[in-house]
TrEMBL record, chain A:
Region feature Disordered, mapped onto this chain: 1-29
Organism in which the protein naturally occurs: Streptomyces lancefieldiae
Organism classification: Bacteria, Bacillati, Actinomycetota, Actinomycetes, Kitasatosporales
Top-level taxon of the source organism: Bacteria
InterPro entries noted in UniProt: EboA_dom
NCBIfam families per UniProt: EboA_domain (NF035938)
Protein name: EboA domain-containing protein
TrEMBL record, chain B:
Keyword entries, A-Z: Hydrolase, Metal-binding
InterPro entries noted in UniProt: Metal_Hydrolase, TatD-like, UCP005295
PANTHER family: HYDROLASE TATD (PTHR42658)
SUPFAM superfamilies, sorted: Metallo-dependent hydrolases
Protein name per UniProt: TatD family hydrolase
GO molecular function: hydrolase activity
Pfam families: TatD_DNase (PF01026)
């Protein structure tokens, strides 16, 4: 669907939101069933799929972020729609957009700004979602190094950084930044994150 | 003592407050959208504020083991500014979000025609979205404000038993209770209610459908007032079950009307393809905002 559909949301919503029963996460089976129907409708071009995207968290709590990622992959929204969903999204919706990027065939001109936005936050959930395969493929060297460093700063395990070994291998500038960070921590009497030594070892491997 | 503060403005509180609240037993909060002490002048200011209530603030709360939900609305004060009024058109896209458990704070400040219009429109939005409503009662001319509030609610599509009328006191509690609405009391250091008056009202009117909040914000207020009310209730002879009803089960029942309450914030761990780790809820509180 296109960004223009957003203008119709207000008119559509009342009919689509009957009162829901009191909080009940439901069973795995309920969640999978709900998601399968929502994905089928999204793939068929039903414009109400964006409402399903918004409510997927409470409809399929057991599935976590994966429910919204599947919905995005089924709907295959265009770039302006993806950007709007991210910008107007809750933290959970933004995570889903970031996690879905590798499945959305989005040009770097549209996808990278979303990754960069997430990397500017201090929300570790967004950071972890931002450093996936899309970032590995499209972030330039400077932005990627800072993303790795930010993971170390905020405690996001570097196992979340896609293609870490490939991109870190032989990266002297990343090694310099890691050494400087370790020196700063040591000077302050604070522990150096164990992940730092792991990444440092990767930089020392031959290209 | 498990505590649910059903009305607290955490964006204006520090991480020290979150730590102290957790230590006092607070495990869940609802943060109603309100003004900022300084009037907004554009719709964009509301959008950034709502986005923070749905993004950074729940993340911050989760780091301290506290579940954070919010209510979204155009507040009555700013309903009087034509520059802010168009935010009403933005509300539907927010009211579908998972963590939005009511429309609020709506109601009256100075009881103007602009407030009438915004109030009625937002009660309709609540009905359309299957949400209850958190209604602020005015600080000036309170009893007249409550009566007008209840009249507007009765004329709306939203049943009165899906409405929480807040900031009640000795002069307004009886008519509010008779209406069938849920009863909210804000306990403040100087104004609104204090702990002793709150316990006296609980003795007179009973704990059913009563919610006690700190309404803590950027003014003189105390995010631990909920705990202090619970302690005084016990000291004055209420049972632990009474305290649990007022400080936990009543807020869970009211906001649970949304079907969207998720109170298991501290339960972390990978559940599905590793995608749910680091969703903002580590097992042990860690510093934030570096």
């Amino acid at each position: 669907m296109t960004a223009a559909h957003a203008e119709t949301d207000t008119a559509v919503q009342p009919a689509i939101h009957p009162p829901v029963p009191p909080a009940a996460p439901g069973t795995d089976q309920d969640a999978h069933h709900w998601l399968a129907r929502a994905c089928a409708a999204a793939a068929a071009g039903d414009p109400a799929w964006e409402l399903r995207f918004a409510e997927a968290g409470r409809r399929c709590r057991v599935l976590g972020d994966a429910a919204r990622v599947d919905l995005l992959a089924a709907a295959r929204p265009d770039a302006p729609t993806v950007t709007r969903l991210y910008r107007q999204g809750t933290a959970a919706e933004r995570r889903a957009v970031l996690l879905a990027l590798p499945r959305l065939d989005l040009a770097p001109a549209h996808g990278v700004p979303l990754v960069e936005d997430a990397l500017r936050t201090n929300d570790t959930g967004l950071l972890a979602a931002a450093v996936g395969p899309y970032a590995a493929r499209h972030l330039d060297a400077h932005a990627w190094r800072h993303a790795v460093l930010k993971c170390l700063f905020t405690g996001v395990p570097v196992t979340r950084v896609s293609a870490l070994a490939d991109r870190a291998r032989g990266d002297g500038e990343l090694a310099r930044m890691l050494h400087a960070f370790a020196d700063e921590r040591t000077a302050a009497g604070r522990a150096v994150p164990a992940d730092l030594h792991h990444v440092l070892a990767l930089t020392e491997e031959e290209r | 003592m498990r505590i649910f503060d059903p009305h607290i403005h955490m964006t204006s509180r520090t991480t020290d407050d979150y730590e102290a609240m957790y230590a006092a037993g607070v495990r869940a909060v609802v943060e109603p959208a309100f003004w900022l002490g300084q009037p907004r002048t554009s719709v964009a200011s509301f959008q950034d504020y709502f986005d923070a209530l749905l993004g950074w603030e729940p993340f911050r709360a989760a780091q301290y083991g506290i579940a954070h939900h919010c209510t979204i609305a155009l507040n009555p004060k700013e309903a009087n500014d034509p520059r802010c009024l168009p935010v009403l058109d933005e509300l539907p896209r927010y009211l579908v979000k998972d963590q939005v458990v009511a429309v609020g704070e709506i109601g009256y400040d100075s009881m103007t025609p602009a407030e009438d219009t915004a109030f009625a429109a937002q009660l309709q939005l609540a009905a359309d979205h299957g949400l209850p409503a958190l209604v602020h009662t005015p600080h000036r001319d309170k009893l007249a404000g409550l009566r007008r509030t209840l009249d507007v609610v009765r004329e709306s599509a939203l049943p009165t038993d899906r409405v929480l009328v807040d900031h009640l006191n000795e002069t307004t509690v009886e008519e509010a209770k008779d209406s069938g609405a849920w009863l909210g009391f804000s306990v403040y250091p100087d104004t609104k209610m204090d702990e002793a008056r709150m316990v006296a009202l609980l003795r007179e009117y009973g704990p059913e459908r009563v919610l006690v909040n700190s309404a803590a914000d950027w003014g003189r207020s105390d995010p631990l007032k909920t705990r202090k009310v619970g302690d005084l209730m016990l000291a004055e002879g209420f049972t632990e079950d009474d305290v649990d009803l007022v400080l936990w089960r009543n807020p869970v029942a009211f906001y649970g009307l949304s079907g969207r309450l998720a109170l298991d914030v501290a339960a972390t761990g990978p559940t599905h393809e590793g995608n749910s780790i680091l969703r903002g809820a580590p097992a042990h509180p860690v510093p934030t905002g570096r």
